[in-house]
Structures are given as C-alpha cells and as structure tokens.
C-alpha cells in the first residue's frame, strides 16, 4: 500500500487527514508535536473538575500571567499559563526577524491550541482573482464543519448567507449592540456596513448541558475543551486506528527519486536522524516552517520569498448606554460580532471587523498602562470598561504589509524574515476609524480614533501566499493541488497556497482548501 505522509498536526493537517481517511487511506502524521506542560494540564483539569464559583484565586492568577503587549497593545495568548504552542525545539532553525511579529508553532495541534475559533467563508468577490471558484471551494467548508462536530445551542438561526455554523449566546453588551445595529440595518447597508453574530468553532450547549458553560476563560484556554482544536480530530482518528501519529519528528528536507519521496527528519526523542519513505507527502507545517522545508529541500539559499498578510489593527469603542450586569454575567469572551465594511474609498475589497465585548483582562491592562494614576482612578475606569468594546480590524492583503523570507546564503541554518510595511495600510485603518466615527449614532458607540493601533507585519496571524496557487505551477507558484513543479507528489496544504489573504479569519478557508486538495489529488 502507498505510504501517505502529512507533515504537521494543525488545522490544515487535521482537515487533510480526515479527507484522506474518507478515501480509505491511512496517512501517517509526522509532527514535532510538543505536548502541553503537565502543570498547565493540571490547572485545566482542576478548573474543569471544580464548579466556577469555587475556582481558586491563585489558580486563576497563574493562568492569567501575560506576555508583553504587541505593537497594537494586545499581549500574546497562553494556554492555561503555558507558552508551549510558541516554544522552540532542539534542531530548530535560527529565525532572524526584522520588524515582523510572525510566529510558528511546533505544538501538537499547532496554533489551534490558542486560536480565537472565528469561522468565516470567503465571498466570490474576495477570491475573484483566485484560480479556483467559490463553487469549487464551497462544498469543502461543509466537510470541515462536519469534522469539527459542533452542536448548536438553539440561540438563534444561522445568519443569512451562512449554513450551519454555530452561533453561541451573545453577551449582554453584544445583544445590545446587535439590537442597535438591527434597528439601522437598511441605513447601515446603504453606508457599506453589514453585520452578524460571530460564528465560532465552539461547542454550543446541548440538552445534557455539555458544551460551552460561558465561564469567561476562553482567552486562556477552555477547561471543557469546547473550543475546537485540531488535536481533537487527530486524537479521534488515532483512537479509531484511521491514522498513525509520529510526534517528536522534526522534518528537515524532502527529496524525490523517480516516483519515491525520501523525507529526512530528526528524531527529537532519541536524538538521531530519521529517514522516511513515502509515495505522497502533504505539508501543513504552518507558513514559515513550510517555506523553510521547501527552500531547504530545493537548496534555494539567498532566494527571497514573499509572504502576504492581512494587517490587523485595534480600535476601542465606548458605548453610550451601559448595560447592567456586564461584569458579572456568564459569557464567552471570544469574538461576539462580525462587521464587514465595504467602502471603495478605503479599498476595493471589504474590511473585516471583529467586536469583543467585556472581559476581565481589560481593567488590569488599562491600569498597567496608567501606572500610579490608574490606582487612584480604578473605580471610574471600571465603569468605562463596562462600556468598552474592542474592535480587531483586518485589511485585505492588497493594502497590507508583506513579509520577505530567505535562507541566509552564508548559513543554511538561518532564516531571515523581514517585514515590509505598506503605507496604504495605516491610511486605511485611519479611514475605517473615521467611518465608524461618522456613523456613531447607528453604532451607539464612539470610537476612540486616537487609540487606533496597527500591529507589526505578520501580527494578527492571517498570513500566507508564499506559494500561491495558479492555473499552472511556476515556482514559487503552485498548481491547483498545491504542488511546485519540482515535486509531483508533494502537496502544500496550509495558508502558503492561498493566492491572496482576504480580510476574513482565514483558517476555515485553509481547512476547506486542504480538504479539497487531499480529496482530489492522485495517490500513486
Ligand atoms: C492567538 C491566535 C488567534 C487566532 N485566531 C484565529 C481565528 O479566530 N480564526 C482563524 O481563522 N484563525 C485564527 N488564528 C490563525 C490560525 O490559528 C492559524 O492560521 C492556523 O491554526 C494554522 O494552522 P496550520 O495547520 O496551517 O499550521 P500550525 O497551526 O502552525 O501547525 C503547524 C504544525 O506543523 C508542525 N510542524 C512545524 N514544523 C515542522 C517540522 N519541521 N517537522 C514536523 N512538524 C512540523 C507543528 O508541530 C504543528 O503541528 C489565530 C492564531 C492565533 C495564534
């Protein structure tokens, strides 16, 4: 039987694995696969086994430890206090970043241990210049939803134009905002705004009271495993005997001889080289690691590659009318509302805004910024925080920064990554803030435009396009099945192959495309 390897265990790998299993194949996932720290797992289990009213303060303080804030003021997320999804490993490549905040993950499940679980399909106009149409991609979104095994909570019907994505119970602030927006839906639409409750890869409550308990810890990890992670799918497939999983394996290069592929890796557990033979390989190692594996395999030193990116910015809004009980309600703290803004004066494609409502991180972050003054003003600031909405805005890649990556010709072990800012991006963020200010009455909120902050290139985690799919493969372009011309049976399945990065949360589209490639490719 042919040997099918998938490199990685993140969202793209999980999606490709389930497509291959559906074809009757039994792929092997070759993965660095760092597991979570035992201490973090202990904290998670303690919280899951104890009712939230009896959670210990010192346990909560331990998981709320924060890293330094990024350029847009947001600290990097951790998983129950652990940074294992971002940790390096022996044999790791030496990354030399300049003005860039891109990350790579070597964790089991990759970045899906920390993601915000926001799901959104692309629209036909967002991918009008892709070599595949929305009709070709669309069925695979449904396959991805099926593998996530989400159950709805009956909180409301799916938003118009969407299929069965789960809508969780919005917070009090989100409900008030959605009511205000609903009252002005037609006027807002005329002014280019559309909106809907956020769609999240989160288990809703079911009749047995499983699923989201609205405990508010989402930004630190879910004690009940309700936020979908790629490792849920991988572990289930391993349990059923449908896939093999090889953690502790750091892939370095791939060689092709005739119809056979040789994967050279380092066995991190036994500290020795490992050689694997395969007839087909899928690479879902995340944009930076995939670039590294491919460039190293082809010995392309000193050849720059361009990674495209969807620039992210943050903008606080203050609601005019407060809602009682905001700081004490049971709620989820992921994104609550999606808003799209179509304004040709900003850019031809829509801008995506994610609205986050109250969470108990805001107060300590603001107090920390204010120093001694914050201590004196704690009470009034708490009142303001109860009316605060945080908007995370995303721009399409046409007007966003790019990131150049290159293997250092003087040291094959080093990868240079340089952010290249796009002047149009900062201007576009300001224009979006101004548009929100102009329409403050309809939003029921004033944007603090002077607080708009744009993240560094690569921040916001929506990057790709280093090996964009085209009608034909022509390095670095890949064909419709994610293949560079040099390797007939190596398929790239992560965001590397997206031709552009539309202003949407991209992982859902990456998973749909990985499923498409793994469903359609020829397995020799
Ligand atoms: C805080 C945060 C919030 C986010 N929120 C959202 C969101 O709400 N919606 C959204 O769409 N996206 C979001 N994202 C982005 C999303 O999580 C990623 O795009 C997605 O998880 C990437 O999946 P992937 O499979 O391509 O790669 P990764 O998740 O990067 O996984 C890479 C895998 O490859 C393995 N690997 C890497 N190198 C090697 C090697 N050399 N050898 C063997 N194995 C290797 C790793 O062990 C890992 O398993 C967020 C990201 C973060 C960090």
Word description of this protein:
By secondary structure, the protein is of the alpha+beta class. It has a domain of 291 residues: FAD/NAD(P)-binding domain, CATH 3.50.50.60. Strands 4, 11, 12, 13, 14, 17 and 18 form a 7-stranded antiparallel sheet that branches. Helix 1 runs parallel beside helix 14 and helix 4 crosses helix 14. The longest helix has 16 residues. The chain is globular. The chain starts with a strand and ends with a helix. The chain binds flavin-adenine dinucleotide. The site of flavin-adenine dinucleotide has 39 residues, from helix 1, strand 6, helix 8 and helix 14.
Walk me through the topology.
Elements: E1 4-7, H1 11-22, E2 28-30, H2 38-49, H3 57-63, E3 94-98, H4 134-148, H5 172-183, H6 185-190, E4 193-197, H7 230-239, E5 244-246, E6 249-257, E7 260-267, E8 272-278, E9 280-283, H8 287-297, E10 305-309, E11 312-319, E12 337-341, E13 351-356, H9 362-370, H10 372-376, H11 378-385, E14 388-394, E15 402-407, E16 414-420, H12 423-438, H13 440-443, E17 445-447, E18 453-454, E19 463-464, E20 490-492, H14 507-520
Parallel strand pairs: 1-2, 1-9, 2-5, 3-16, 9-20
Antiparallel strand pairs: 4-12, 6-7, 7-8, 10-15, 10-19, 11-14, 11-17, 11-18, 12-13, 13-14, 15-16
Flavin-adenine dinucleotide binds next to helix 1, strand 6, helix 8 and helix 14.
């Amino acid at each position: 039987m042919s040997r099918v390897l998938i490199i990685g265990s993140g969202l793209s790998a999980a999606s490709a694995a389930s497509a291959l299993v559906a074809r009757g194949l039994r792929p092997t996932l070759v993965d660095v696969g760092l597991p979570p720290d035992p201490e973090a797992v202990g904290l998670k289990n303690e919280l899951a086994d104890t009712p939230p009213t009896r959670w210990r303060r010192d346990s909560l303080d331990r998981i709320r430890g924060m890293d330094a804030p990024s350029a847009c003021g947001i600290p990097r997320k951790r998983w129950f206090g652990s940074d294992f999804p971002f940790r390096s490993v022996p044999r790791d490549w030496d990354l030399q970043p300049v003005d860039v905040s891109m990350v790579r993950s070597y964790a089991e499940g990759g970045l899906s241990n920390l993601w915000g679980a926001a799901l959104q399909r692309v629209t036909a106009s967002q991918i009008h210049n892709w070599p595949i149409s929305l009709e070709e991609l669309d069925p695979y979104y449904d396959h991805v939803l099926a593998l996530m095994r989400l159950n709805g909570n009956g909180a409301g019907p799916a938003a118009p134009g969407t299929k069965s994505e789960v809508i969780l119970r919005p917070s009090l602030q989100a409900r008030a905002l959605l009511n205000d927006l609903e009252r002005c839906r037609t006027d807002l639409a005329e002014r280019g705004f559309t909106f809907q409750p956020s769609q999240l890869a989160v288990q809703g409550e079911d009749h047995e009271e499983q699923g989201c308990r609205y405990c508010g810890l989402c930004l630190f990890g879910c004690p009940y495993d309700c936020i979908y992670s790629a490792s849920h799918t991988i572990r289930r497939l391993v349990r059923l005997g449908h896939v093999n999983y090889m953690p502790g394996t750091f892939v370095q290069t791939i060689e092709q001889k005739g119809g056979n592929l040789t994967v050279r890796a380092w066995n991190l557990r036994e500290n020795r080289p490992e050689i694997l033979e395969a007839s087909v390989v899928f690479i879902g190692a995340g944009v930076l690691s995939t670039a590294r594996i491919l460039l190293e395999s082809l010995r392309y030193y000193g050849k720059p590659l361009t990674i495209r990116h969807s620039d992210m910015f943050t903008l606080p809004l203050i609601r005019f009318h407060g809602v009682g009980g905001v700081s004490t309600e049971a709620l989820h703290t992921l994104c609550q509302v999606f808003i799209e803004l179509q304004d040709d004066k900003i850019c031809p494609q829509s801008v995506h805004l994610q609205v986050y409502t109250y969470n108990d991180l805001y107060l300590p972050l603001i107090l920390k910024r204010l120093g001694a003054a914050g201590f004196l003003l704690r009470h009034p600031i708490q009142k303001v925080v109860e009316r605060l909405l945080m908007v995370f805005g995303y721009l399409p890649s046409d007007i966003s920064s790019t990131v150049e990556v290159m293997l250092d010709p003087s040291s094959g072990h080093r990868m240079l990554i340089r952010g290249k800012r796009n002047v149009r991006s900062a201007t576009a963020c300001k224009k979006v803030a101004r548009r929100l200010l102009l329409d403050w009455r309809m939003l029921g909120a004033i944007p603090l435009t002077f607080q708009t902050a744009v993240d560094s290139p690569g921040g916001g985690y929506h990057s790709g396009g280093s090996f964009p799919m085209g009608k034909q493969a022509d390095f670095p372009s890949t064909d419709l099945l994610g293949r560079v011309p040099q390797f007939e049976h190596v398929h790239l399945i992560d965001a590397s192959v997206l031709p552009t990065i539309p202003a949407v949360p991209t992982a859902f589209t990456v998973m749909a495309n990985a499923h498409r490639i793994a469903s359609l490719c020829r397995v020799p």
